[in-house]
Design a protein that fits this description.
The protein has 130 residues and is α+β, with helices and mostly antiparallel strands. It has 3 helices and 8 strands, in the order ββααββββββα. It has one domain: Alpha-D-Glucose-1,6-Bisphosphate, Chain A, domain 4 (2-Layer Sandwich). It starts with a strand and ends with a helix. It comes from Zobellia galactanivorans (strain DSM 12802 / CCUG 47099 / CIP 106680 / NCIMB 13871 / Dsij).
């Protein structure tokens, strides 16, 4: 299952956006209003829980300075990645596209597609306000 947000332009250079996203505690600022729990476990891992959803632990899986950050589920139960692709528009503006890639059976994909799409949209919208 692949979900991608439209590119959001952010009034910050790509280096500043990259540094914001690599500091995992900043993801709390991007979360939806219905967040019930957020905790940084270590510099590469954090957990969060939204109302009515199980806790999810995300772990940094890779990064390319100033252009990409990849987070993945720390559990094999829900195998997915969340990738932020950052493009430089100019020194003071960049564009960010978020993409979700998951391997789910058809029933699970049908159940989670709408909530994940909304979640990704909220992350993207909140990122444009940093």
């Amino acid at each position: 299952m692949h979900i991608e947000t439209p590119q959001k332009n952010i009034a910050k250079g790509n280096k500043e956006v990259f540094e914001f996203l690599t500091d995992l505690k900043n993801f709390e600022k991007l979360m939806p209003d219905n967040i019930e729990k957020f905790e940084v476990i270590n510099e590469d891992r954090f957990l969060f829980a939204l109302s009515g959803m199980p806790q999810i632990v995300l772990q940094r899986q890779g990064q390319t300075p100033y252009s990409q950050i990849v987070l993945g589920a720390a559990s094999d139960k829900l195998p997915f990645t969340l990738t932020a692709d950052i493009t430089s528009i100019n020194d003071t503006e960049s564009g960010v596209t978020l993409s979700f890639e998951g391997k789910f059976n058809a029933m699970m994909a049908m159940m989670i597609k709408h909530p994940i799409t909304n979640f990704m949209g909220t992350l993207s919208e909140n990122l444009s306000k940093i």
